[in-house]
């Protein structure tokens, strides 16, 4: 999360983040908006044509009835009202019959309005739902690296506001199309009456169209900016809620507020700008048909004087103009919203057509009934075209270089530990092993089958990855473990027991049925990790990959977990990123990674004896572990305080604060240990250096401790 308060961050960096190739960063021209917007509306409506076409037909019926009304009123004026006035002898029966006819047409019109509006709404909401579903499917297909490049706020904003913007104009669209039919019919009717009045009509419609085009040209860039700012506001809000623990623990509430207010303010100003443009155009567009009616009346009276027109015909044309004012507006609504349609659609399409795809093969992993044999053959992984947190494109980074690695329970034992300093490529290796990434070069096989050839189901059955950040869903413990699959309670308990989670789950108010709350806010970090671990264990994968998955558990719990997995799950190969000596010691084989290359493999004892860099790193971790212990006891204290907090909300905030703080300090501690190890790597033959280093670390620990106490 970015805690920058700089107002300038937003537009430049966010725009940079959005792929300009998709054309979502540049405002489209009026012509493009017209073509692309109408094209989108037509093709969307075609997808729902069984509802949309009846809706348009209702609109056309309405439009024709509208023109018919004007014809009837013209006829009634000419044949009933004018003769009545001229003779001074009104015929009540004829007037009543004419009135009934007009009323009958009005009822029919009302029916068509109901039909059109209902069907148009049904079309619109179906399309919104259809595209949300497509987007959800696409998002679940896109690979992890793609997701890592996106901001959740932007995705949320596309899911809600961009899709709605795309289909917003569907509601008035049938009416606007029907207006075209009405226009054509009206042109025929007026052409049969008087060419001069026809000219007024055609010019009015042409001016109306031109005004709408100018409006679009002015509105499109503002609409584009509004959609972008909406995404930004959503992103900041999302980050603030998500990172509430960090924000609170680092006392950044005010900075976050400034950041949010800044973006919200720009959205407000942009909305007002659009309102301002609308404010100028709307009255003009509204007034135009009325000006035309006035003109028709004046010119028509002159034409009656010339004998080119009857009074009834003038009334008919003037009434037609009155009736057409609203439909012509609906045309304007659609045209005026086309810029939103185009912008919303481009943002939605960016995701729907994202090229990154992790395709699956057609093979299933052989059911050997034994732990999986995993083999990396010359695997290189280059992170291409990745974006850093600032939104800038990072240079391509090679994270793993031609890695050859075999984890085979028969020859290497069932537990393989991956050890390496920060950034050495451990997580990359675990992502590759669980096929969340594909190698740039080389291949990875599971029992001889390339991971890329496996079906999605076979992969999910065979391999499970547990990450450090455990995600917990807002549902019961049971659902969190089974994820809706058919596992018995006995299986769930078995998995929880091995993950050392059964004890605290039983202590929850409703045991397995306890709802954990959004993101498991009512659990500690270590408890969340253990639930996530049980989720993987219950599936009894043949390859289990743990990337720092027990980092928030204390060493005794971590050791118990690994020991349980080793003892009870005999059909699983365990690939574990390890930091603690006690964890590494469980492994039958250790792989030592340095700068993306495997520089040593063997047993822990062998590497300790033969590889000085390995020894230095593991020793550094051990020292860091002392500080971890201190932090753990602090965590316990903070959790006690959280438990004593009066309300659940406070308890949750306290817990999050404690988790964030401890995780941050642990990481810093580990990195400090690694840095020191890198800075002055002591020779094994030089015990004095070790003593000196240990003393120095002790001093820093004490300083840290004093500082922590003061902060408390
Ligand atoms: N998405 C990415 N885009 C570009 N580079 C990346 C990306 N993810 C990781 N890297 C780079 O690849 C290298 C290996 O990263 P990796 O996360 O695998 O290290 P690690 O050993 O797991 O580190 P840590 O101990 O801190 O978790 C690092 O230099 C890192 O900066
Ligand atoms: Mg990592």
From TrEMBL:
Bilayer disposition of the protein: Multi-pass membrane protein
GO cellular component: plasma membrane
Low complexity composition bias: residue spans: 1-15
GO molecular function annotation: ABC-type oligopeptide transporter activity; ATP binding; ATP hydrolysis activity
Keyword field contains Transport: yes
Acidic residues bias: start-end ranges: 702-712
Chain ranges passing through the membrane: 50-73, 93-111, 167-190, 196-215, 317-343
UniProt xrefs under Pfam families: ABC_membrane (PF00664), ABC_tran (PF00005)
Subcellular location: Cell membrane
Biased composition (Basic and acidic residues): 649-683
Domain ABC transmembrane type-1: start-end pairs: 55-340
Main location class: membrane
Location of the region described as Disordered in the Swiss-Prot/TrEMBL record: 1-22, 642-712
All copies of domain ABC transporter, residue ranges: 381-620
Keyword annotations: ATP-binding, Cell membrane, Membrane, Nucleotide-binding, Transmembrane, Transmembrane helix, Transport
Family: Belongs to the ABC transporter superfamily. Lipid exporter (TC 3.A.1.106) family.
Protein name: ABC-type multidrug transport system fused ATPase/permease subunit
